[in-house]
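Priority: medium. Attachment 1 of 2:
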């Protein structure tokens, strides 16, 4: 878990560092936004594809190749001054080659622990990943503003290579082999729980992205108050994951957890006072990690082991698209009616997610009397008669 968190630590740093770097070079946030959009498009496309490749060529081979390409792309962005279109191409390559660490580790988990421990492990993982979003942005902002954007990007490369190597060389990565999927790519989305996890993940993460945009806009583009409020949001999620992770997951688990998030976000609309926002976002955060834990568990429990990596890839793609959509819609509303518009957007995203969880509750698996392990892969075995 420590290795995969380190390997994924750059996820909370790259977008901000590239935003600051490209804006510094070009003098335009619009240009920086285009590069970030290229990265997001690449990540969204690559998620299910590179995850699926791990079943064909092995986890270590795919992780190593994508790691080297991604690190090289970021290093070139840092060290060479180029025209904007070439920065966009490099951003696309960096996004396409994002190492599928998240899909890999959540495919490995069922082979590491007992069935009874799997759901709490998913919850712990969802909680601890908040460290990425609490610490990483603060670290990279300090380095970029106090030392420079080039050292900031090179720091990302060092952490990406070091953390990635640590994870790739972990014994568990070598011991677990993902069987090659016999289904065509995308077929896994015909599984109702996987499709629901993708849709709900899109809506939940869209709401979280809108909150982040709203907080930054509220406190003048990232002042001290913005960092504190966002940290409180993540702390609430961490506490919620640790407190609720042991509760068995039934069909209504997602609806209950999204109800907490939605109520907390709805209360943010009342006031933009720093203490009010901090308190309401702590409340909303309590439901975030537990909701993500349900997403991971229902995905794992609904597919064959050979399809788990691709399934998690699709879920990740849904979340990436949700983040882009949430940020974009919040941005338009901030320009139109002010920061409150972002909190309205966040509430709307999560309220729709809650309604999806209620209306399609029969599509959510009941894991109260079963574990979240993937369905074993079976095939005919020749025998001598």
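Attachment 2 of 2:
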């Amino acid at each position: 878990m420590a290795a995969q968190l380190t390997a994924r630590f750059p996820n909370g740093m790259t977008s901000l560092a590239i935003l600051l770097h490209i804006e510094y070079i070009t003098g335009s946030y619009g240009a920086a936004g285009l590069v970030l959009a290229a990265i997001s498009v690449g990540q969204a496309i690559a998620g299910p594809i590179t995850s699926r490749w791990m079943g064909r060529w092995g986890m270590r081979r795919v992780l190593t190749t994508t790691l080297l390409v991604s690190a090289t792309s970021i290093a070139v962005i840092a060290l060479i001054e180029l025209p904007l279109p070439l920065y966009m191409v490099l951003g696309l390559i960096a996004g396409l080659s994002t190492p599928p660490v998240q899909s890999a580790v959540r495919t490995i988990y069922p082979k590491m622990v007992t069935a009874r421990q799997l759901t709490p492990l998913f919850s712990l993982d969802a909680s601890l990943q908040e460290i990425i979003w609490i610490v990483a942005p603060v670290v990279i902002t300090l380095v970029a503003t106090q030392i420079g954007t080039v050292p900031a990007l090179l720091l990302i490369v060092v952490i990406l290579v070091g953390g990635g190597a640590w994870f790739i060389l972990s014994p568990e990565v070598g011991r677990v082999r993902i069987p090659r999927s016999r289904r065509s790519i995308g077929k896994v989305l015909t599984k109702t729980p996987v499709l629901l996890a993708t849709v709900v993940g899109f809506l939940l993460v869209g709401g979280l992205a809108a909150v982040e945009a709203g907080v930054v806009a509220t406190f003048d583009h990232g002042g001290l108050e913005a960092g504190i409020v966002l940290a409180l949001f993540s702390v609430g999620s961490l506490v919620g994951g640790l407190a609720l992770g042991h509760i068995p997951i039934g069909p209504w688990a997602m609806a209950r957890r999204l109800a907490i998030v939605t109520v907390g976000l709805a209360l943010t609309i009342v006031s933009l006072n720093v203490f009010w926002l901090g308190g309401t976002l702590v409340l909303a955060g309590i439901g975030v990690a537990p909701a993500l834990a349900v997403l991971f568990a229902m995905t794992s429990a609904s597919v064959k082991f050979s399809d788990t990596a691709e399934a998690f890839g699709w879920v990740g793609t849904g979340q990436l698209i949700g983040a882009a959509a949430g940020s974009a819609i919040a941005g338009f509303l901030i320009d139109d009616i002010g920061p409150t518009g972002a909190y309205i957007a966040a509430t709307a995203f999560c309220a729709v997610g809650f309604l999806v969880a209620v209306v399609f509750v029969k599509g959510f698996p009941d894991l109260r009397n079963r574990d979240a392990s993937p369905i074993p892969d079976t095939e005919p075995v020749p025998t001598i008669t």
